[in-house]
Amino acid sequence: MIILGIETSCDDTGIAVIKADQRGLKRTCLPTKQESMRISILEQAPYGINFDILSNIVSSQVKVHAKYGGVVPNLAAREHLRNIEPCLKQAIKESKINLKKVDLIAVTTGPGLIPSLLIGVNFAKALAYKWQIPIIGVNHLEGHIAAIWLSPNHKTSKFRVPNPNFFPAISLLVSGGHTQLILINDFGKYKIIGETRDDAAGECFDKIAKLLNLGYPGGPAIATEAAKLKTKSQKLKVTLPRPMIEQKNYDFSFSGLKTAVLYLIRDNKEKIKDEKFVQNLCAEAQQAIIDVLIEKTMRAAKEYKAKTIILSGGVAANKELRKQLTKATKKLNSKPQLLIPHLKFCTDNAAMIAVAGYLRYKFKRPNNTNWRTINADANLRLKNW
Ligand code: KG4
Ligand code: ZN
Q: Which among 14, 154, 169, 350 counts the fewest CB atoms within 10 Å?
């Protein structure tokens, strides 16, 4: 099956062509409507599904938004409108498939910026109408989680539920718009056990970078500065709070951390000119975010006896977070598996949307796959299948 993925929830225009290959699957194992999804999916486990990424085009708008230090929604929509058709053409060209071969369109319907979402959703609806093929709306966050099934080595991208020991899974989803801890008890069965009460982790990176004039997006910029710090100097030592780390819930709060940095800059007008001080500050800000994320994830993994931990979202590209989460997971007595998308698939892309759309289409067998029934929803929550 060939799936066309479309992603425009924020400031990246993404179009991907994915081939889902079930050749190894026993036909009898495909779920019927009456069957429980859990049984049917687990039955397919030994066979798996190969995802072949035929093309994955991402047109970034970073240059447009950089001078504002963040995404300007109307400018983002204008750029999506300008880029979406050339991206489609390039994606089709690179995939070397005939347009007529596309079987399914998967498009992000939310959450995200409504002017941006509307461009992708309406474009996808028009294609579904013109080509007379099914279309499926995808939750952007489900897309981020589905990125764990993608491999840069196309031929080895595999959706494989190894065994019933996959669930429960705890997913730490950290992006520019979201910070959530999600308990996944079964396929498509989500429970948000905690989330940020104000800024998302990625937003905190972006805002701190803006205060330090490090540019946009802030996450990679802060990580780069932090990595320059070879030896920590006592004289330039900076200490920042770890908001809500002691609270026995799974919620987060990052806006106070940004304010703490604001005051630190205000009170250290001379020191802030020193690049070593900036590096210390970036390292400490990054560590403060990582400490809170890891502490809460480990606690959730213990409480819910997680057999799998999943890290996803744009902030999952942070090398320190990946490294430290790997170390913390290894220390857990229960030894859960840790799944992190390849670096290439952490930030927004349409390949992950195509995969999430395909899995939902295949295993949920939804009724609403007509272009008329698809709508954008800026505040879309993760819904159970
Ligand atoms: O998932 P994503 O591409 O878009 C949203 O869905 O929001 O995430 C973008 C966010 C931005 O806030 C960006 O600063 C952050 O991910 N990010 C990082 C890194 N790369 C991207 N944060 C920390 N370290 C990184 N290496
Ligand atoms: Zn995202």
A: 154
